[in-house]
Structure formats: structure tokens, C-alpha cells
């Protein structure tokens, strides 16, 4: 990446060739350097089976090349044309309740369908062959947001594919019966043919079967992706390949199993402008997507210039918010800022979704802000290859997420992303940079590892955490972690069995709180409160930092600290209120030797550093409603306002941004 790429989804098929000429002019004016093109073009380029019409698309590609705009060229397979499902209705996906979905929207394909995959691969072969070596071709964009609308399909084709997947995983039906605990409720299988997807059943379907269906469904979509990737690798080796993950964080796909097959990872991000803390959730997603490739720059492949159309109420982004959000992505490692979409369509379901060129055309606030940001990003190409570094890791695992949110658990209030954000937000507010990593990753490079609700923990992960702490690491584990193995079978002998020695305690019983309930917590004698959960903890060497303040558990441990080997392991038996969790994490980070990017920043200012060849880039982003002044540790120039003049203090307007070059950490 030699610059920060800027642009958006470009859907020229909605417009006449005269508009394409105006598009290219405006793209130049707005410093657009990359467009994602062709995402929904299948019906236009293959109007009848095997009959291709690429002429118009050639013109578009040539115009892009002539205009110096790179194409992130889509494989065009995201929305099959009506003729395909009419000829092969069996490609249409089926919901868990047996309803077969219709064509007429998009993503109307069963990911396991060999018919869909075959037709998609045939089209990709055509597209790749035609545009191999084209000067506009920079990168491939496979499909679009896999798993967005169709998270899982329950049709008979999927059922057969599931059985194959299970045969691969378990080898024998006995092994499957053991993994799925099928002695329970007389569920024992005698033959693979008896197994079905976990469709709607009289009551809770087998949890291990549900968990495997999540795994299988992620793999089924990955299978579609790999089918296309194989064609591209063969026809255009050397052209990088990506696909856009659904933001903010997507439950349906295990990104960790996808990203090894991508050359660069991409995310779509649509925080709600009505949500004053939407940027925190977005930051979490950016830290996660960056960490899936161990810090390699990633692409913000879509965001909205202003409002979306798909929430029940859609706020525009107020002036400056789009710029601030875009810089936040760059601060957290993005090497591209793209939008959905270039030109707002007059018809179709997304006609009220904002675009870089709105219905009102060039003379609009949104376009002016888009063009200004384009020029600004183009002025700092040196940022593109720099990287974010973090001392803190938060563990995230899709298997555990899927298992945590299954039915018939002690409480329905356990939600993985809530748990993540509850622990991430105080670190974010303290300007402590985090990676969000898979639990199997080597952790010794981190000073602190935070484990919110890692319910499913296989023996390898438990060992990873044990050796991390034994080697001197600082660990924070929240409740209901380390409860089951990879088959959702509870560890016996006192929770959380695989970590009891590390944490120096045993959990005897779970005491989830009633809906909306809270419980008192006494931290070093100071009263606080907590929500969601409490539990009966027996210490086995850990010291008690906080006790429950009221109810049946009054006086019993709520937060503990244990030394283990050369390290320290903290345990949170509840979800302390935000201020208390912040105070605890401030204490824990200080003990672990973790520093904020800059100490003492005004409330609402986000600070992140990217490390580059010529120095460190400090990003300061003001999410507050007031202008603030930030004094720098040493004079540094703001690359966005006056790159030649070092300054000692930066004045940040509300939604203001500064990018300083210097040495800060
Ligand atoms: C997703 C899709 C786009 C568009 C946007 C609208 O990100 O990939 O095609 O529908 O949502 O927000």
C-alpha cells in the first residue's frame, strides 16, 4: 500500500455512460483512488445462462484506468440473477423453520449449493480471464458480505453437506455420539443418514449439534469463497484477494478461519449516529479485524457517508462525524477508507441510503465533506504502511461466542459482544490500545490479557493462559469462562476447572441476577454495584479484592487476585458498574506496566499511535462536544494543518482530528 486508498462501491449499471463521465470527473475532484466495482453486476453481464455481455463493463474499467482510479474488482457473485433460481429453485436458501426464501432481493443462495458454486465459478473464470492484466485491476473482492443475510441454510442440500462435514470432523458415528452427548434425551445416532440440521424442534435442540451447525455454516460460506479464490489464484496469481466482513462484528463467520485465505482483510462499518458510544464499538471491531492479520493494515471497505436506510430510524451523520469516524479507522490501522456507495441510486431498496454523491448532486453537504476528506487523506500517503502496536490483548473466539449464546443457560443476559464491550470500553476510555486476538495466539508479547466470558475453552487454550501467567503475564478473567470444552461438555470438579489453579479459586454455584437486577459490591470498603451475574466463589489461595455487598452472597468474594508462577491472575465474579470496572482496570493496567497512549487526556479524546518508518503518528480524535486543548509531551507537527511547524499543544474542535508526527511512546 503506497497511500491511503479512498473511494467506494461503484455501481455504474444504474447510470448512462454520460453519467460515468461525470463520475470520473467528480472522483478526481474528491481524490478517489479506488472503487469496488461490479458487486451486483451478475444479471447485467450474464443476462442469459452462458451468454455474456462485458462490453459496457470494459468501458467502465477503461475509464477507471484512464482516470487513475484502481478497481477493487468484485467477482460479481453476490446476487445471482433471477434465471438461476428459476432454473434451479434448489439453490434458494431455507430458514430454520423450513421456509424457502424467494429471489427478488439479494444473497438468495444456499452456501452449500453445488449448483450455485458451479455457476459462480464459471462467472469468475470469465471475469478473471477478461480483466487479467487490465491496468485498473488492483485487487479482487470476492462475493459481498458473506453470511450477512443468510447466516445458515437449513435445506436438504445443506443437510447432506452437514453430514459430510461431520464425517470429516468425527470420522466415526461413535465419536460424534460422544461429542454430542447423545445419550441425553435418547438422541443416539446409529447412522450418519439420521442426522439433520438443528431445525425447529419441540424444545431445545442438542447444544453440541447447534454449535457444530454454526461451525459448519461458517465453513459453508468459506467454501464458496474458496471456490472463487481458487479460480483467481490460477488466472491472476499475484493480484491480492479480499472479501468484506459484515461489521461491526459478525457472529455468523469465524473470521479467524477465513483470514488466512485473504491477502488483506476488509471490514464494513456502520456505527449508529444516534448512539453516542457507537465509536467505541467501532473501535473494538477495528482492533479485532486488524488483529486477525496480526496488525497488517486492513481496508475499511464500506461505511456510510451519512445515513443508512436499514435501521428503523436513520440519522444522518452530523457535520464532521464522517471525517472523525474515518480517521478513527485509519488511527486503528486502516489503509483504505471506502464507502457504500459512490452515487445514490434513484430506485431500489437503498435509494435512501446516503452516498458520496447524493441525490442532490455535487452541491450538497455530504459531497463537500467527502471531497474534503479525500484531499486530506491524499495528503498523508506515508501513513499507509504504518502499524498499531498494543500491550493489551482481549481474547475473542467465535466458537465460544456461538456456545455462550445457546439456549438453556443460567441466564439469557450473557451476550458476547456486551461482555467484550464492557471490558473494552474502560480501556478505550483510558486510551490503552488493545489488540483483540484469538485465544490460541502466542500471548507472551502482551503485558495484560483480558478474557471476557470465554465460556468455551479447550485444553490448549487453558494451557496457553496458564503458561502466559506462569511466565509473568497479567490476566483478567471474567465469570462464566472455562466452563465447557470444545464439544460444549462441562468440565467437572468445580468451575472453572481448567483455570482453578491459575485463579486460585473455585466457583461452587452460579447466581445470575434477575432481569435488570443489580447487586452491591464492596471494593476495598467502598460501595459499588454490579449487574448480570453473581456466583458463589470459594478462594483457594486468591486474595479477595471485592466482596458482594448484599443478598445471599453478601460478604463472599466478587473480585479476586492470585499470584501464579511469575504472573498475576484476576477474577471478576460479576459485571462491576462502569466506574468500578474502570477503576479496577486502571489498577490492573498500572500493575502490569501498561501505560495509556498519553496520560491525562481530556474526557472524550481518543489517542492512538501508528508506528511508521519515519516516526510515530499520534492520532488525536475528539468525540466530545467541547473544544479541548491537548498539550503534547514534546513539540510535534500536525500533518493535517501545518506539517512544517512543530506545535506544543493542539486545539481540537468538537469532532476535531489531529495527526502528529513525533515520538510518543
Ligand atoms: C452492506 C452491503 C452494501 C449495502 C450496505 C448498506 O454493507 O455490503 O451492499 O447494502 O450494506 O449499508
TrEMBL record:
GO cellular component: beta-galactosidase complex
Gene Ontology MF term list: beta-galactosidase activity; metal ion binding
Gene3D superfamilies linked to this entry: 3.40.50.880, Glycosidases, Golgi alpha-mannosidase II
InterPro entries linked to this entry: Beta_galactosidase_C, Beta_galactosidase_Trimer, Class_I_gatase-like, GH, Glyco_hydro_42, Glyco_hydro_42_N, Glyco_hydro_b
Beta-galactosidase trimerisation domain ranges (all copies): 390-594
Pfam families (UniProt xref): Glyco_hydro_42, Glyco_hydro_42C, Glyco_hydro_42M
Keyword Isomerase: no
Alphabetic keyword roster: Glycosidase, Hydrolase, Metal-binding, Zinc
Residue positions binding Zn(2+): 110, 153, 155
Positions of the catalytic residues: 145, 302
Keyword Metal-binding attributed: yes
GO BP terms, alphabetized: galactose metabolic process
Catalytic activity: Hydrolysis of terminal non-reducing beta-D-galactose residues in beta-D-galactosides
EC number(s) reported in the record: 3.2.1.23
Name listed for the protein in its UniProt record: Beta-galactosidase
Species, as recorded: Amycolatopsis carbonis
Taxonomic path: Bacteria, Bacillati, Actinomycetota, Actinomycetes, Pseudonocardiales
Amino acid at each position: 500500500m503506497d497511500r491511503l486508498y479512498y473511494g467506494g462501491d461503484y455501481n455504474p449499471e444504474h447510470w448512462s455512460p454520460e453519467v460515468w463521465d461525470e463520475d470520473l470527473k467528480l472522483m478526481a475532484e474528491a481524490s478517489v483512488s479506488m472503487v469496488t466495482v461490479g458487486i451486483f453486476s451478475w444479471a447485467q453481464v450474464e443476462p442469459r445462462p452462458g451468454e455474456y455481455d462485458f462490453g459496457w463493463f470494459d468501458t467502465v474499467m477503461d475509464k477507471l484506468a484512464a482516470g487513475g482510479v484502481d478497481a477493487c474488482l468484485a467477482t460479481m457473485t453476490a446476487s445471482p440473477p433471477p434465471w438461476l433460481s428459476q432454473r434451479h429453485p434448489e439453490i434458494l436458501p431455507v430458514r430454520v423453520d423450513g421456509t424457502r426464501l424467494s429471489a427478488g432481493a439479494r444473497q438468495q443462495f444456499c452456501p452449500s449449493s453445488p449448483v450455485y458454486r458451479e455457476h459462480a465459478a464459471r462467472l469468475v473464470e470469465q471475469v478473471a480471464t477478461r480483466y487479467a492484466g487490465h491496468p485498473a485491476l488492483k485487487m479482487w473482492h470476492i462475493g459481498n458480505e458473506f453470511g450477512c443475510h443468510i447466516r445458515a441454510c437449513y435445506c436438504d442440500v445443506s443437510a447432506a453437506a452437514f453430514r459430510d462435514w461431520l464425517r470429516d470432523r468425527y470420522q466415526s458415528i461413535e465419536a460424534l455420539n460422544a461429542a454430542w452427548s447423545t445419550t441425553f434425551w435418547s438422541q443416539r445416532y446409529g447412522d450418519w443418514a439420521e442426522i439433520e440440521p438443528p431445525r425447529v424442534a419441540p424444545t431445545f435442540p442438542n447444544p453440541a449439534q447447534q454449535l457444530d451447525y454454526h461451525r459448519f455454516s461458517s465453513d459453508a460460506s468459506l467454501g464458496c469463497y474458496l471456490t472463487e479464490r481458487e479460480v483467481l489464484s490460477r488466472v491472476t496469481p499475484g493480484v491480492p484477494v479480499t472479501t468484506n466482513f459484515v461489521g461491526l462484528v459478525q457472529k455468523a463467520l469465524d473470521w479467524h478461519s477465513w483470514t488466512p485465505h485473504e491477502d488483506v482483510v476488509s471490514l464494513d462499518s456502520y456505527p449508529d449516529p444516534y448512539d453516542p458510544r457507537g465509536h467505541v464499538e467501532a473501535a473494538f471491531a477495528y482492533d479485532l479485524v486488524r488483529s486477525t492479520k496480526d496488525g497488517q493494515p486492513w481496508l475499511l471497505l464500506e461505511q456510510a457517508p451519512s445515513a443508512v436506510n436499514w435501521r428503523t430510524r436513520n440519522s444522518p451523520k452530523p457535520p464532521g462525524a464522517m471525517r472523525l469516524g474515518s480517521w478513527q479507522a485509519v488511527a486503528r490501522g486502516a489503509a483504505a477508507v471506502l464507502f457504500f456507495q459512490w452515487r445514490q441510486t434513484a430506485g431500489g431498496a437503498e435509494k435512501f441510503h446516503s452516498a458520496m454523491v447524493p441525490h442532490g448532486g455535487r452541491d450538497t453537504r455530504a459531497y463537500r465533506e467527502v471531497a474534503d476528506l479525500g484531499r486530506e487523506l491524499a495528503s498523508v500517503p506515508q501513513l499507509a504502511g504504518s502499524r498499531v502496536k498494543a500491550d493489551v490483548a482481549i481474547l475473542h473466539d467465535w466458537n465460544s461466542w456461538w456456545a455462550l449464546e445457546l439456549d438453556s443457560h443460567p441466564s439469557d443476559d450473557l451476550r458476547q459482544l456486551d461482555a467484550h464491550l464492557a471490558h473494552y470500553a474502560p480501556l478505550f476510555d483510558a486510551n490503552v490500545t488493545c489488540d483483540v486476538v484469538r485465544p490460541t495466539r502466542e500471548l507472551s508479547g502482551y503485558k495484560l490479557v483480558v478474557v471476557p466470558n470465554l465460556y468455551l475453552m479447550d485444553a490448549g487454550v487453558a494451557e496457553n493462559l496458564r503458561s502466559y501467567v506462569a511466565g509473568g503475564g497479567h490476566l483478567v478473567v471474567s465469570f462464566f469462562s472455562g466452563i465447557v470444552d470444545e464439544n460444549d461438555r462441562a468440565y467437572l470438579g468445580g468451575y472453572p476447572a481448567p483455570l482453578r489453579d491459575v485463579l486460585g479459586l473455585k466457583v461452587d454455584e452460579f447466581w445470575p441476577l434477575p432481569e435488570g437486577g443489580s447487586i452491591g459490591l464492596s471494593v476495598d470498603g467502598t460501595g459499588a454495584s454490579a449487574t448480570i451475574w453473581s456466583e458463589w466463589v470459594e478462594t483457594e489461595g486468591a486474595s479477595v479484592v471485592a466482596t458482594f455487598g448484599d443478598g445471599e452472597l453478601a460478604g463472599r468474594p466478587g473480585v479476586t487476585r492470585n499470584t501464579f508462577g511469575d504472573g498475576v491472575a484476576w477474577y471478576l465474579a460479576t459485571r462491576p458498574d462502569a466506574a468500578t470496572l474502570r477503576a479496577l482496570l486502571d489498577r490492573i493496567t498500572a500493575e502490569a506496566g501498561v501505560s495509556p497512549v498519553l496520560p491525562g487526556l481530556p474526557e472524550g479524546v481518543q489517542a492512538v499511535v501508528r508506528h511508521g518508518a519515519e516516526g510515530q503518528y499520534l492520532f488525536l480524535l475528539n468525540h466530545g462536544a467541547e473544544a479541548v486543548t491537548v498539550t503534547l509531551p514534546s513539540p510535534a507537527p500536525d500533518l493535517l494543518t501545518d506539517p512544517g511547524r512543530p506545535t506544543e499543544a493542539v486545539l481540537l474542535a468538537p469532532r476535531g482530528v489531529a495527526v502528529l508526527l513525533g515520538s510518543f511512546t
